[in-house]
Amino acid sequence: MSVDKARQLEQLRRAVTLKRLQEREGARPNGTRKGNEGIPRADRTAALPLSWAQQRLWFLAQLDPAAGVAYHIPAALRLKGHLDRDALKRALDRIVARHENLRTSFTSTDAGPVQSIAAETVGFALVEEDLASLDAPAREQALRARAAEEARAPFDLAAGPLF
Asked: Rounded to whole angstroms, how far apart are CA atoms 88 and 107?
């Protein structure tokens, strides 16, 4: 048998196998399943249960509020030069609007904890403090102290935000 004939037979075998698998699994030729057009979007007007990871976080917070510090991933970004504060605020607000997890808090109910998702318009609570009146070493020290304080601040899972 020639190499070309062997390739053609292999391609035919793969095509037949793929067709049989699609038929067995109820898949359409384009890869989607019959009767299942994807995961439906959850109703955001109803109470949403916590995911397994959220349940673990909530449970640990109930046991020991300080345990949540283990989930902190502090990071700082030093910007130099002119800062367009309005553009920064708009960018941070847009990120929060796009990501529900940044607007989610946990509410305790009689049936257990549930997710509460704030409106897209909640925005980012940008805190500004002017340290210009301090000399350079004092400004650096104050900046480091505030950054460390922010990194140690516990999350309030009920009030949010979770960042």
From this structure: 30
* DSSP track, 55-101: HHHHHHHHH-GGGGGGG---------S---HHHHHHHHHHHHHH-GG
**Cα–Cα distance, 43 to 41 (Å, whole number):** 6
Task: Name 86's bridge partners.
Answer: none
Distance CA 104, CA 144 (A): 29
Spatial separation of the C-alpha atoms in residues 89 and 95, rounded to whole Å: 10
Distance CA 47, CA 43 (A): 8
Q: Phi/psi of residue 67, each to 5°?
A: -65, -25
Q: Residue 116, Cα to own-chain centre: how many angstroms?
A: 15
pLDDT tens digit string along 29-76? Answer: 555 555 566 778 888 777 899 999 899 989 988 888 877 777 788 888
